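Today's session is about reading a structure prediction critically. Students often jump straight to the picture, but the first step is always the sequence itself: look for stretches that repeat, for charged clusters, for runs of hydrophobic residues. Only then move on to the predicted structure, which in these notes is written as discrete structure tokens rather than atom positions. Here is the chain we will use throughout the hour.
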Amino acid sequence: MLRYVIRRVLIAIPLLLAASVLTFGLTLAMGDPLAEWKLERPRAPAEVAAQYERIGWNKPAPQRYLDWVGGFVKGDWKTTVSPGSGDLDVRSEVGRALGVTVRLIVVAEVLALLIGMAIGVVGAVRQYSAFDYAATGLAFFMFSMPLFCVAVILKFGGIQLNNWLEDAGLGRWIVTAGPPDAGFAGGLGQLLYQYTGAYLLPVLSLVAIQFALYSRFQRASMLGVLNADYVRTARAKGLTQTRVVLRHAARNGLIPVVTVFALNIGVLIGGAVITETVFGWRGMGALIVDAITKREPWMVQGWMMVTAAVIIGFNLLADLVYAYLDPRIRLG
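Below is the predicted structure for this chain, in token form.
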């Protein structure tokens, strides 16, 4: 098992290196990061040259890449390049945004995974039952709904609920414009109340879409496993239906779902723009939009590398889960 883990980690290193090269090439395609600044008013050549030297843009592209990679490995991810931006530290900004997004998607993905797996297993065991038809219809309906529509509908419902609560003298509970940057304060009950109100709508919008994906994969996988020889053998040995399903069938049926889960985490971090925009969260989605709009090359590269590392990390985790669920993988 240890050799299997080491082999997977070693494979991840060249992938990260390739991601860094691709990321740097994409930032070069963004063009001159000081183009808009130079158009604001006439600039003296010495002033322009000083700004290019400040951000390291006076060096050839290969040298800039090597300087950036060396600094990135050491923890120096550089600062924002736009004059007047305050030279924000890229590492700190990406870390802050990643924390916001991870808190959101982890809660949503765990709930979606548990709900989707439960619905998928029950739907496969009770194939063509009323529950299976209802779950299938709901899953296909949610597949057809764009995340933006779900988020807007939930936000509208949250605003109406807040109005009703306010009329009843209970105050506004649902947060529809993002949690405060300073966080919440108060006792345990107050914190639970405030955090629930802040997370409820964005989490529900993600769960509504994601649970449909997991339920369909879990159902399809379980249908194939339930007819396998070892499952029929377990039934012939007199094991209960619950033990056969949970102990023997569900374990191997999890492998496709683990794959989807691992890939989905990276997709959600990169695609959090919609959810964060609708509900006013300042996470990874808002950060990359702002960085591209302002042509911040170091911010874009830091964002891309962190996202690539998360995707590779979760794929590595999926490989380890595969090896645990199916020993043939690590022995092969």
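Discussion point for the tutorial: The chain has one domain: 90-331.
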